[in-house]
Amino acid sequence: MRFTVEEINNSSTLLPNVTLGYDIYDTCSESANIHATLRVLAQKGQHSIEMLHTFRHYESRAVAVIGPDSTKLALTTAAILSVFLIPEISYEASVETLSLKRLYPSFLRTIPSDRQQVKAIVLLLQRFRWTWVALLGSDNTYGRSGLEALHELLSAHDICIAYRGIIPSNKDASSLELHHMVRILMDIRVNVTIVFSSKQIARPFFEVVVQENITGMVWVGTEDWSLAQTVWHVPGIQNIGSVIGMSIKQTESMILKHSEPWKSAEESASSTGAGGGNGGSSRESTQLNCTQGCTGCRLLTTAPDEYDTKASYSVYTAVYAVAHGLHNLLGCASGACSKDRVYPWQLLEKIRQVNFSLHENQISFDANGDILKGYDIIMWNWRGPGWSSDVVGSFSVNPDRLSIDQDKILWHTKDNQAPVSVCSQACQAGEKRLQHGRHRCCFSCVACPAGTFLNRTDLYACQPCGRDEWAPARSEACFNRTVDFLSWADPISWALLTPIALLMLLVAGLAVVFALNISTPVVKSAGGKMCFVMLGALACACSSLFCYFGEPTRLTCLVRLPLFSISFTVLLSCITTRSFQIVCIFKLNRKWPALYEAWTRHRGPALFIGGSTAVQAALCLLAVSASPSVPRRNYGASAERVVLECSQDSSQSATATVVYNVLLSACCFAVSYLGRDLPENYNEAKGPRRPPARPRTRWQATAGRGTATPTTFPRRSP
Prior knowledge:
Domain G-protein coupled receptors family 3 profile: 492-686
Organism: Apteryx owenii
CATH superfamily of the largest domain: Response regulator
GO molecular function, one term: G protein-coupled receptor activity
Main location: membrane
Oligomer: single chain
Distance between the termini: 140 Å
Largest sheet: 8 strands, mixed
CATH class of the largest domain: Alpha Beta
Number of helices: 18
Transmembrane segments: 494-518, 530-551, 563-586, 606-626, 658-675
């Protein structure tokens, strides 16, 4: 931090003619941290904190605070400083709770929130299809909050947690509790374990892992310990398997390599006994003596490792964020800064709005005060006894995206392939998952039946297809049903239409022949003008068949029943009338001549035909009114097809129309049967008994075919 302040003070563009000052406090304990916070709140030149009625005119000893480094201490500091809206920028407190602005309105940080780290871990698991994992967290605020966030997000993405445990703090490798936890990992047979822990607590845990001789497992680490020297220095840790972890994504400034603290640390790296040191801002400050008796910022360890360089760069970024906020607040863009008094709340607003470039890195904060920064995905590599880490991918935010370079990954497995970590193997296409127990990742596979499909968004239920769709068994999609109706162009339609057309041509030909010979005895004996009524009724009955071809419409569905029923009734009535006339002439006229006279005088044939037709028309009208036939789609005919048809009229009126024609047919047959003993030329009942054998031309009228039988009627005397 001292190097950064001096660099800014020597800059001619950032805060020109303004000199930054600073105080450095040791936060090696909770009490020291609170004492340092209260010292910051003390007004200039005083050792007490005056409570004002408004924070707008509050003048603290410092206008901004950088740090502290631990989550536990940052929660305390942020709660106090937020009351006075004094901006605080932490460089290593990543717990997600600090993003809540209603609790910590003045807190910002130059390290990504653990929420982003959790997202990166979930995307990493999804990339390698690891759905059966163990989840461990350290027994502190960092580990517990990260564990909760990770558990929530893993559950939302169908990644099952086989075991969830808390790594106890203040334990060593001889702890029975740690040994019990490691044995559980061996028993549940998971290949991937996520360790969301601080490095101090992670070290004894991995010492136990080495003692229990666990090999071939994948360990997913968080940014706190994945590059920490104290962890990878554990003897024998190179045999535990593949370690892949998160590291803060950044381009470290080479200028830091030339700062005095850095050079001093490098110079003392070869010395085993360094002088007293300022506790500085190390995350391992709990292992240092709390003293201010040093003359320089020197660590009590060897030269800083890669982990320390990233922490130093976060401090570097935090100081520059404060400087840019002051630069904007004092209006230094014109080249001269204002000498107005600066209040912390004013500076807080400007820091939230900063957006500047720092050594090719864009620095800005979101609405929660979190820096928009991603992670590098690193992997441990052992080249002989030497340890190293390689960047094998990255995670970027806004939008969230994970990229992995598979060629850079060296898995510590026999075949150098990514280990598989699943509870159950994936189902085949079109098979749903039948969950076993409480874990969704443990399941058996059941084929989806016909008419259903497996939607990839829900692998645990077969979705039914729509009414106009179908699907075979084990399907992952539905298909449109084929719409079927009797098309005019179908070959079967032509096969049916051809005889109908020929029959209608025959009827038309007969009508022409009868019309040309209307006055001949043959036509008169066949019924005279009644023949045209019979032929017309037969033609109408045949034309009703055309209503069954083509796509059904409301008109064709309504017309086809009345058209056929009424036409057939007219035809049967005409045949019945003609047969009755023959019987009257040869039989009834002798016994009851008055009956035949009344029949002819009151136009009996016309009345009978009209009356019977009117009854049928009334029945058809009732049938159409009660239950009209309409076009419908028949989905039950076939699984793959939809049949377009007219709805069947099942009302009593529709049944009555059929019954009426059946009764009329029976009446026609009965009347014709009465003439079985008539002379041969007038016997209408012998047609059903034997085929015509005489050369005389016969025309037989039947209910279905509608033909006329020419015969000779005796001309009645006037």
